[in-house]
C-alpha cells in the first residue's frame, strides 16, 4: 500500500503542465521568431541547404553558435575547427544545469533533453519561476522554446534573402530578448553579485583581447565564482569552529 501511494505521489510530482509551459514560452517566442527567421535567411544566403539549416536548429540549437557556424560552413573549414569554436561559444551552458538539477525529470531521455535544450533564454525563464513550479514546467518550456526556434528557422529558409532587405538586423532581436529576460530574472531574485562579476570580468577581459572577449570573460567569471565559493566556505567553517 505504501509503495503504491509513493508511486502515485511521484507521478503527481512529475506531472507536466503543458498549457502553462506554452504560456511561459510565448515571451521567448517573440524573440526567437525574428531571430530564428533571420538565421534561416542568412543560412539561405550563405548557401546552406534547407535540410542542414533545420538540422542545425534541431541538433545544435544555440543561437550564437548557429550564427557563427554560417561563415565557417561557407568557408569550408574543417569540422574540428568548427567544433572548437562552437565549444568556446557554448562554454557557459555547462553551468546552467547546476541550479536546476533537482528539478530535472527522472526519466533519462527527458533529463538529457532538458540539459541539451537549456539555452540562455530557457535558463532565464526557469530561474525566474517559483521553485514549486519548476519541476512541472522545465520539459514543456524547453520543448516549446526549441519548437519556436526550429519553426522560425524553417520560415526564414522559405522566405529567403528578400526579408533581410526589408528588415535589416533581425538577429539583434535575440540580444534584446536576453536583456529583457535577464532584467526579469534580477527582479525576481534581487541578487547583485552575478551582475558585479559579469561587469568586472568583461572590463578585465577587454584589456587583454577583443577576438576572444567572450571566452576570456567567461573564464574570469568562473574563477571569481570559485574564489567566492571558497571564501564563503572558509568563512562558514571559521564561524563554526569559533562556536
What does this structure look like?
With 243 residues, the protein is mainly alpha-helical. It folds into 2 domains: 2-190, no CATH class; 192-243. The chain has 12 helices and no strands. The longest helix is centred in the C-terminal third of the chain and has 30 residues, at 213-242. The N and C termini lie far apart (46 Å).
- The amount of beta strand, in percent, is under 5%
Radius of gyration: 21 Å
The averaged pLDDT comes out at 79
How many helices? Answer: 12
Produce the secondary structure layout:
Elements: H1 2-13, H2 18-45, H3 50-60, H4 63-75, H5 79-89, H6 108-116, H7 120-127, H8 131-159, H9 162-166, H10 172-189, H11 193-208, H12 213-242
Brief description of this entry?
With about 240 residues, this protein is an all-alpha fold.
Tags for this model:
2 domains; mainly alpha; single chain; 243 residues; disordered N terminus
